[in-house]
């Protein structure tokens, strides 16, 4: 065996073939591989993003729920307070009204008593005059003793 | 090129097509054949060391590559090796799903092995025909035919492996009786035609591995011969024919590996089915 130009000729051919492969055969394969890699990476990315989003959304939902619960309890407390206040006010009003009624009733009674006393007085003085008339048998001039009798009645 | 400055084309071609044979020569005993006649005289009891060596090397390369890819495999974004291996894997898997209708966990790995192994062995063909013979000549080895699939021993060996699996699954799935019935009662279901059916079916069965082996061998061998013929052109003209032929062989190499695999799977699928 000996080295001759055939070997060089084959080497030239091989070099051209390798060049051809690098230029035209490898790129589509490499592209396909990269595309596949990218697709997988994108898919994984999307999945992790989605799970992160889900986490955030869950957190938000929890937050909202907590806030609304707090608000509800606040509102409830306010309402309780308000109702207590209203009851207190009503009680106060009722007490004042009662007192007022009692006071007016009392003053009316007093007036009534006074009027009754007045009546009684005038009747007593009248009776006294009649009695005196009967005793004195019309010797007393009613006109003349009117003043005296009035004073007597006022003393009663 | 062979020894001596004046080399006849016939000798050049024959030299390139001669395997490195180790066997039991009637006169020299167990030795390396130093010529084609000696290799022929060794008869059956000889081994093509180059075919064995290169096919085992390609098999190891396949195992090493895929094992490595399997080790670094992640469920995340795959690296370049994993990506390429996954693509081949998916390709073979979808092919098996399309062609194999039974249920057998052995078929897909078998198809993957056949495909990648044959592909690697065929790809050796792209290397210029003189490189390795020349290199080994320097090392004192007379013959070196590096493409195992241009040796019918290699292709028939693989086809025989597939054939054994066909027989095994035919008997396992249908039983000895079922298989015998299938051989004797198809295509004509009549007792009088049993001998005729048997003849027909046994030929059809035996043709399967033979056609598998010969198709691959024929394509690869013919391509190799043409590469050698091209190499005998003047050195400045070699690339004119060699480059297109090599580019064409990117297709042939892949296609023949694919055809061998698909047909193996189809044969095994029909071995699983009752007729």
UniProtKB/TrEMBL annotation, chain A:
Tell me the compartments it is located in: Cell membrane; Endomembrane system
Question: Could you confirm whether the keyword Repressor appears in this record?
Answer: no
Q: Which UniProt keywords apply?
A: ATP synthesis, Cell membrane, CF(0), Coiled coil, Hydrogen ion transport, Ion transport, Membrane, Transmembrane, Transmembrane helix, Transport
SUPFAM superfamilies to which the protein is assigned, alphabetical: F1F0 ATP synthase subunit B, membrane domain
Tell me the membrane topology, using the record's own terms.
Single-pass membrane protein
Membrane-spanning intervals of the chain? 7-26
Which residue windows are coiled coil? 44-96
User: Matching InterPro entries, A to Z?
Assistant: ATP_synth_B-like_membr_sf, ATP_synth_b/b'su_bac/chlpt, ATP_synth_F0_bsu_bac, ATP_synthase_B_chain
Role, per record:
Component of the F(0) channel, it forms part of the peripheral stalk, linking F(1) to F(0). The b'-subunit is a diverged and duplicated form of b found in plants and photosynthetic bacteria. F(1)F(0) ATP synthase produces ATP from ADP in the presence of a proton or sodium gradient. F-type ATPases consist of two structural domains, F(1) containing the extramembraneous catalytic core and F(0) containing the membrane proton channel, linked together by a central stalk and a peripheral stalk. During catalysis, ATP synthesis in the catalytic domain of F(1) is coupled via a rotary mechanism of the central stalk subunits to proton translocation.
Q: Which family does it belong to?
A: Belongs to the ATPase B chain family.
What is known about its subunit structure? F-type ATPases have 2 components, F(1) - the catalytic core - and F(0) - the membrane proton channel. F(1) has five subunits: alpha(3), beta(3), gamma(1), delta(1), epsilon(1). F(0) has three main subunits: a(1), b(2) and c(10-14). The alpha and beta chains form an alternating ring which encloses part of the gamma chain. F(1) is attached to F(0) by a central stalk formed by the gamma and epsilon chains, while a peripheral stalk is formed by the delta and b chains. F-type ATPases have 2 components, F(1) - the catalytic core - and F(0) - the membrane proton channel. F(1) has five subunits: alpha(3), beta(3), gamma(1), delta(1), epsilon(1). F(0) has four main subunits: a(1), b(2) and c(10-14). The alpha and beta chains form an alternating ring which encloses part of the gamma chain. F(1) is attached to F(0) by a central stalk formed by the gamma and epsilon chains, while a peripheral stalk is formed by the delta and b chains.
- What name does the UniProt record give this protein? ATP synthase subunit b
Automatic annotation (TrEMBL), chain B:
**Which segments cross the bilayer?**
44-66, 106-132, 153-171, 191-207, 219-239, 245-268
Predominant localisation class: membrane
Task: For this UniProt record, give its keywords in alphabetical order, as a comma-separated list.
Answer: ATP synthesis, Cell membrane, CF(0), Hydrogen ion transport, Ion transport, Membrane, Transmembrane, Transmembrane helix, Transport
Where, subcellularly, is it found? Cell membrane; Membrane
Q: Does the keyword Cytoplasm apply?
A: no
Give the highest taxon in the source lineage: Bacteria
Q: What is this protein called?
A: ATP synthase subunit a
Q: Which organism is it from?
A: Vreelandella gomseomensis
């Amino acid at each position: 065996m000996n080295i001759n130009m055939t070997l060089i000729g084959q080497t030239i051919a091989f070099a051209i073939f390798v060049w051809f492969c690098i230029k035209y055969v490898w790129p589509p394969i490499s592209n396909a591989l990269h595309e596949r890699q990218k697709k997988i990476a994108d898919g994984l990315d999307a999945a992790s993003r989605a799970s992160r989003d889900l986490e955030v959304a869950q957190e938000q939902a929890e937050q909202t729920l907590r806030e609304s619960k707090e608000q509800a309890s606040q509102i409830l407390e306010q309402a309780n307070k308000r109702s207590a206040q209203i009851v207190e006010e009503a009680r106060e009003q009722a007490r004042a009204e009662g007192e007022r009624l009692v006071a007016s009733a009392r003053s009316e009674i007093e007036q009534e008593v006074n009027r009754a006393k007045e009546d009684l007085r005038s009747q007593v003085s009248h009776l006294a005059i009649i009695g005196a008339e009967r005793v004195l048998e019309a010797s007393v001039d009613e006109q003349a003793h009117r003043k005296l009798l009035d004073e007597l009645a006022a003393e009663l | 090129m062979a020894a001596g400055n004046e080399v006849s084309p016939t000798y050049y071609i024959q030299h390139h097509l001669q395997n490195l044979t180790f066997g039991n020569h009637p006169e020299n005993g167990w030795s390396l054949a130093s010529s084609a006649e000696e290799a022929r005289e060794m008869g059956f009891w000889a081994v093509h060391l180059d075919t064995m060596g290169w096919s085992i090397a390609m098999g190891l390369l396949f195992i090493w590559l895929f094992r490595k890819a399997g080790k670094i495999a992640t469920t995340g974004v795959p690296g370049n090796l994993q990506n390429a291996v996954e693509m081949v894997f998916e390709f073979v898997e979808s092919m098996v799903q399309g062609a194999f209708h039974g249920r057998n966990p052995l078929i897909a790995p078998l198809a993957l092995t056949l495909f990648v192994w044959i592909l690697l062995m065929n790809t050796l063909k792209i290397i210029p025909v003189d490189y390795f013979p020349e290199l080994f000549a320097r090392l004192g080895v007379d013959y070196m035919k590096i493409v195992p699939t241009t040796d019918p021993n290699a292709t028939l060996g693989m086809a025989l492996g597939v054939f054994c699996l066909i027989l095994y699954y035919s008997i396992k799935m249908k039983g000895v009786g079922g298989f015998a019935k299938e051989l004797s009662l198809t295509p004509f279901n009549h007792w009088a035609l049993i001998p005729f059916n048997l003849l027909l079916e046994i030929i059809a069965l035996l043709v399967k591995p033979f056609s598998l082996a010969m198709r691959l061998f024929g394509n690869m061998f013919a391509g190799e011969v043409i590469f050698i013929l091209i190499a005998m052109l003047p050195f400045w003209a070699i690339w004119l024919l060699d480059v297109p032929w090599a580019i064409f062989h990117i297709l042939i190499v892949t296609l023949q590996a694919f055809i061998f695999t698909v047909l193996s799977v189809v044969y095994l699928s029909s071995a699983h089915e009752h007729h």
